[in-house]
């Protein structure tokens, strides 16, 4: 009797072990794959498709090594260089946004999900109480740069006035974000030798213009070829009352970038 009891226990253990080992390996893989799907990403949907792109953006190549001077070649007499294009063989262009008038929370989602390395040139009087939005953008990978306190046309203004506009915004951004930007964009793209001297005295490493900009969702070029080239700096218009939203303008631009076999790089890595 005891012998028969032990035999029954042994048989049950074998059966249980067999059940544990007979789980379909494909099923196990399916469970693991399901665990990797993020809660906010439904199965079969990818971020690039959500934002109107037919394919993901290729990652930017590894940026060049920074020089001892910290990036862009110094201008004459120690003044910051003025750049609208970065000389590089990397197949990248750079997306920049001015002022800070548009504060769409969905644009923060776009930057986060597409991992867009965008540069935001902020004007204090335009941003007003909206710095929290740009703190969120910064937390998902955007960088914050200087676009003056009050957005005046700087060319022709005395040194004291230009310095107050540039250094004043440096101080504002430091108090808001704990940083002093290295890059500066003069309002309307206008500047003179006094601007460069004031910018240098405020700790600016490069004055950033643009070779291409968006206008009603279309690309407009300042000079040279009428197409995007590696190293181009693009200014994405903001504050347009009518026409495509900032997200829509960015999507159109990204499609153009992909069509040229390019991707988006981080401007600060190259200057």
Description:
- The chain has 271 residues and is an alpha/beta fold.
- The chain folds into 2 domains: 2-36; 72-269, Glycoside hydrolase/deacetylase (TIM Barrel, Alpha-Beta Barrel), CATH 3.20.20.
- It is 37% helix and 14% strand.
- The protein has 9 helices and 10 strands.
- The strands form 2 sheets. Strands 2, 3, 4, 7, 8, 9 and 10 form a 7-stranded mixed sheet that branches. A 3-stranded parallel sheet has the order 1-6-5, with no helix packed on it.
- Helix 7 packs parallel to helix 8 (193-201).
- The radius of gyration is 26 Å and the shape is globular.
- 31% of the residues are buried.
Topology summary:
Blueprint: H1 2-21, H2 25-36, H3 47-50, E1 82-83, E2 92-99, H4 105-114, E3 119-122, H5 124-127, H6 131-139, E4 143-146, H7 159-177, E5 183-184, H8 193-201, E6 206-208, E7 212-215, E8 218-221, E9 233-236, H9 246-259, E10 263-264
Parallel strand pairs: 1-6, 2-3, 2-9, 2-10, 3-4, 5-6, 7-9
Antiparallel strand pairs: 7-8
Total DSSP helices? 9
The percentage of residues in β strands lies in 5-15%
What is the gyration radius calculated from CA atoms?
A: 26 Å
Distance, first to last CA: 87 Å
CATH H-tier superfamily of the largest domain: Glycoside hydrolase/deacetylase
- Given helix and strand content, the structural type is alpha/beta
Low-confidence sequence ranges: 1-39
Structural domain tally? 2
């Amino acid at each position: 009797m005891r012998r028969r009891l032990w035999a029954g226990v042994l048989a049950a253990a074998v059966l249980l072990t067999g059940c544990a080992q007979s789980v379909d390996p494909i099923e196990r893989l399916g469970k693991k794959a399901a665990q990797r799907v993020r809660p906010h990403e439904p199965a079969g949907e990818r971020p690039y498709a959500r934002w109107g792109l037919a394919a993901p953006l290729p990652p930017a190549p590894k940026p060049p090594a920074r020089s001892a001077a910290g990036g862009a070649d110094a201008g004459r007499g120690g003044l910051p260089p003025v750049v609208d294009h970065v000389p590089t063989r990397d197949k990248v262009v750079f997306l920049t946004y001015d002022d800070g008038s548009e504060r769409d929370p969905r644009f923060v989602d776009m930057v986060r999900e597409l991992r867009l390395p965008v540069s935001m040139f902020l004007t204090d009087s335009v941003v007003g109480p909206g710095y929290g939005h740009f703190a969120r953008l910064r937390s998902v990978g955007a960088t914050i740069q200087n676009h003056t306190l009050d957005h005046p046309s700087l060319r022709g203004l005395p040194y004291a006035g230009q310095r107050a506009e540039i250094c004043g915004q440096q101080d504002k951004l430091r108090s808001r974000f704990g940083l002093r930007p290295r890059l500066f964009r003069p309002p309307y793209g206008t500047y003179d030798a006094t601007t460069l001297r004031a910018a240098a005295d405020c700790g600016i490493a490069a004055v950033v213009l643009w070779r291409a900009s968006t206008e009603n969702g279309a690309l407009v070029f300042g000079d040279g070829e009428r197409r995007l080239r590696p190293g181009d700096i693009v200014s994405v218009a903001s504050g347009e009352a009518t026409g495509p939203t900032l997200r829509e303008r960015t999507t159109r631009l990204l499609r153009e970038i992909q069509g040229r076999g390019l991707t988006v790089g981080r401007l600060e890595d190259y200057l």
